[in-house]
Amino acid sequence: MEFLIADTFTDSLAKLNGAEQTATKTTAFDLQVNASNPGLQFHRIEKSKDANFWSVRVSGDLRVIVHKTSGSLLLCYAGHHDDAYKWAERRKLEKHPKTGAAQLVEVRERVQEITVPKYVEAVAAKPALFASISDKQLLGYGVPPEWLEEVKKANEETLLTLADHLPNEAAEALLELATGVTPQAPAAVPEGINPLHHPDAQRRFRVMSNVEELQLALDAPWEKWTVFLHPAQRKIVERDYSGPARTSGSAGTGKTIVALHRAVYLARKYPNSRLLLTTFSEPLANALRNKLRLLISHEPQIGERLEVHAMNALGKRLYEINVGKSRIASGDVIRQSLGAAKAATDSKFSLRFLETEWEQIVDAWQLESWESYRGVPRLGRRTRLKEPQRQVLWSIFEQVRKDLKAKGLITESELFNRLAEHFAHSTRPYNFVVVDECQDVSIAELRFLAAIGAGEKNALFFAGDLGQRIFQQPFSWKACSVDIRGRSTTLRINYRTSHQIRTQADKLLGPSVSDVDGNAEERKGTVSLFNGPQPAIRLLDGEQEEKDAVAQWLKEQTKSGIAPHEIALFVRSNEQVSRATSAAEASGVPFKVLDRSLESVSGKLSIATMHLAKGLEFRSVAVMACDDEVIPLQERIETVTDDSDLEDVYNTERQLLYVACTRARDRLLVTGVEPASEFLTDLAE
Fold first, then answer.
1. Which H or E run contains 461?
2. How far from 475 is each of 168, 417, 573, CA to CA, in Å?
3. Quick one: how many helices (H) and strands (E) in the chain?
4. How far apart are the C-alpha atoms of 52 and 31, rounded to whole Å?
5. In this predicted model, what pLDDT tens digit does every residue of 465-484 receive, in sequence order?
């Protein structure tokens, strides 16, 4: 008998408390090992429209709903007796007449008239969105036949609520149609395929072949262990690219999942190849390793050829193997050297200007001569420099270069530049490289990657979002020999964040973001697959009032059934962490302050700075201390010496707040003490 698990089961399991989850998992394991065990108490659900729905007693009034046939047993739902029975009475498992995919369909006559939830602001009736689309087309998108009438009546006000009642493939197609996008035609499937094995069915049902796989499924959220890819994602993953390729999308659209699957796809397609999956920081590399381990749990041999490294750690490792020991100059050493060289020339340029000119131009592009500095385009630097001024500056930078060389020190940019030169003429360490969070890759790192994949088919694949750039200055990829024109794609379906949170957070950014090469990432047209409460933005009179408000909010979250480890508090910098810990202590909810390892603890809420938020996700998030002079950070503004630097400070600070807000799946609270951050005005509009 085939044993399967549905996404509705893992979703419902997450809503139970710890003891209930443990008991339910034990019953799930018992069902997998021997479903005919007489100790398991099956009861047919008489009022269900599907005769194959059964209830299995867990303990007390806790029940598991299963769908049982002669050939399969599917775990569908877990909950308390009345709730579980009501769930089963409203659903049936059936094969879609057009697509052939198995669907858990809500029984239309048992669903009350769809009303807009209280948190969606009521508006005047709007025209039906799909009235002109034929039944045949809608069926082709996976709309269940009994829902056709409701779909035909849907308008902008009711669409998101309606989507909650439909199978994913149908909901996604309708949301795409509503935003002016033509959904991709369903993939052809072999005649007679098992409805549970249909590609569309695999997004919600997964065969469990052993106890270990079931353990992974029950211990990790559905979206982190499933092997399903949306058709639009699969097309990106499995496409052949003649040169470097990049996929983008706003927070929650599945860029990291695409990157992971791309790496695994290439490993399977090219069994003798060596591959690298990389990102800009060690915390994110750790997160990638964990997700990769889930993805290849039944193909561990892939892990022998697919390495996961943070860029800086990778650079130091390869440098030691191929060039020699490296001694990296610290920021303090470079600052001291710049100060000494400035004093020797009696320059009128500020030390801060010299630092940014060194970091963003001289060191970033590895300029080694006066001629190269004189002719380099100073992209993003609006302070105009005449040639005599450049000569003075170069005399300073040349002295810094000599000083570092005399001390036997190199910069990270120099390290990657030397690696790029080395691998341009030597055997490359990897056949394929996949880069996640590529918006924060540096100039020198990109040059190194270009040297590995120069001119090779499928060699370089990038995933990222310009709207989440929080570390690097913008620069031209083409100037680094990475040209993605014609091989750029955008993901538009948001799987992680509610419609309300996504649309609120998007107000922090413009409708589109462009890179220096003119490649635009359009943010309009992105759709979320589920509804949620409207985010709350609160401005308080003082820190004590903020602490009390956040503490009360935390109590409400846990009271509503959200586990502490599904909650996070984010602040701008380490200086504000104490405000978050005070609120957590006042609420009585256990907590852990995360470090760069990003190791959260079950049963404890997470507290972290916004820079550590990348790659994390929680059901409920509070972003605290959004005060004036905190975000944007006044210290950064005060050190600005160039107009473009000021613009970039504001852009990256906005993007930092955007990153923090979009870590939330269902509930978001943003707080600040008056006078509050100017960004909250935009966020609240």
1. strand 460-464
2. 39, 16, 26
3. 25, 24
4. 16
5. 876 665 566 788 888 888 88
Identify the bridge partners of residue 277 per DSSP, sorted by sequence position: 308, 434
Confidence bin at 124 (pLDDT 50/70/90):
low
What separation, in Å, do the N-terminal and C-terminal C-alpha atoms of the chain show?
55
Whole-number Å distance between alpha carbons of 381 and 480: 18
User: What local confidence, expressed as pLDDT, does residue 383 receive?
Assistant: 59
**What 3 state SS string does 144-200 have?**
CHHHHHHHHHCCCCCHHHHHCCCCHHHHHHHHHHHCCCCCCCCCCCCCCCCHHHCCC
**Amino acid in the structure at residue 172:** E
Distance CA 66, CA 3 (A): 10
* Cα–Cα dist 75/4, whole Å: 6
pLDDT tens digits for range 427-467 = 999 999 999 988 888 999 999 999 998 678 999 999 988 76
Other beta carbons less than 10 A from residue 206's beta carbon = 23
Give the pTM: 0.73
pLDDT surpassing 80 at residue 596: no
Provide DSSP, 498-543: -HHHHHHHGGGS-SEEE-TT--EEE-TT-EES---PPPEEEEESSH
Query: How many C-beta atoms surround the C-beta of residue 449 within 10 A?
Result: 29
Tens of pLDDT, residue by residue over 140-189, are 999 999 999 999 999 888 888 898 899 888 988 898 888 777 887 666 67
Please state, in angstroms and rounded to a whole number, the distance separating the CA atoms of residues 83 and 78. Answer: 9
Closest residue by Cα to residue 109 from 160, 66, 147, 57: 147
CB-side exposure of 313: number of CA atoms within 13 Å? Answer: 15
DSSP 252: T
Q: Is 55 helix (H, G, I), strand (E, B) or coil?
A: strand
Q: Could you tell me the two tokens for 661?
A: 């807000």
- Rounded to 5°, angle at Cα 574 from 572 and 580: 75
Q: Buried b / exposed e across 595-612, counting CB within 10 Å, b at 16+?
A: eeebebeeebbbbbbbbb
Structure tokens at 622: 């509070």
Return the pLDDT at 81: 95
The C-alpha atoms of residue 655 and residue 436 are separated, in whole angstroms, by 17
> Alpha helices, DSSP H only, in 205-269?
211-219, 222-225, 231-238, 255-269
